[in-house]
């Protein structure tokens, strides 16, 4: 009798164990919405420069020389915002910032494998600047600030208990605010071309953890790379003499300036909450 009961108990345990194990795995299938916030750290583009179109043919890379033939920008460049009219005091580094956003997505689960798609909208405030210094002396600074991003990404993950470990990647679009400032009070400056948006990609990974009652907690890292049309600033004579490097003959109309790097990259570190239906 005892042997019969033991065999019955063992059989029950063998039957119930897989079901119990299965019940401990969170079901990730279905739609969800969420909110998140985080920190943006922009790339350190310390080697970025300004580029010049001296003969206004649309090709950038021309030298800007003084009447004596010397490089008017021999003091150099820095990957940040100017703190003075010369590079000796250095430049203010790029500003990292915070972000906040909303997302919606859908997942499909196949055993422990989870695949899904999602869309996000984020408000950002990360900045990226570059400065050139002339022998005048004067500084010329371009700054672009990432104001918002929108993204559509795929997601592939592995479900382990209440946790979902995943990688993600896809398309990203960014909206920018571009600014130009200079300490040069003699020449005239007009912005004749502006790039205020850019598109590219996002990739990263994270963990989502089920808290119960449809709520989940998320922690995520993403890298975003966007191609941005940099604005072009036309430098005219203004009150400067005819020997000014920007308006030297034979081209007395002026010189176009733009940024040397058309890419904007930022590291995003996020935490958030999702609600799963």
Overall description:
By secondary structure, this protein is mostly beta strands. 8% of the residues lie in helices and 59% in strands. The chain is built from 1 helix and 15 strands. It has one helix at residues 2-23; strands at 30-42, 50-53, 76-78, 81-82, 91-92, 97-110, 113-134, 138-160, 163-182, 188-193, 197-212, 215-228, 232-236, 255-259, 263-276. Strands 1-6-7-8-9-11-12-15 form an 8-stranded antiparallel β-barrel. Strand 4 (81-82) and strand 5 form a beta hairpin. The longest helix has 22 residues, at 2-23. It is elongated, with a radius of gyration of 28 Å. Mean pLDDT is 89; it is low at 1-23.
Please outline the helices and strands.
Blueprint: H1 2-23, E1 30-42, E2 50-53, E3 76-78, E4 81-82, E5 91-92, E6 97-110, E7 113-134, E8 138-160, E9 163-182, E10 188-193, E11 197-212, E12 215-228, E13 232-236, E14 255-259, E15 263-276
Antiparallel strand pairs: 1-6, 1-15, 2-14, 3-7, 4-5, 6-7, 7-8, 8-9, 9-11, 10-13, 11-12, 12-15, 13-14
The overall pLDDT average reads 89
Q: Over all CA atoms, what is the radius of gyration?
A: 28 Å
**What percent of residues are in strands?**
over 45%
Return residue spans where pLDDT drops below 50 for at least 5 consecutive residues: 1-23
**Main β sheet profile:** 8 strands, antiparallel, barrel
Would you tell me the structural class of the helices and strands? mainly beta
Strand order of the largest sheet: 1-6-7-8-9-11-12-15
Task: Please give the count of helices.
Answer: 1
Summarize the helix and strand pattern as letters: HEEEEEEEEEEEEEEE
* Cα end-to-end separation: 49 Å
What oligomerization state is this entry in? single chain
What's the shape?
A: elongated
Helical residues, percent:
under 10%
* Count of β-strands: 15
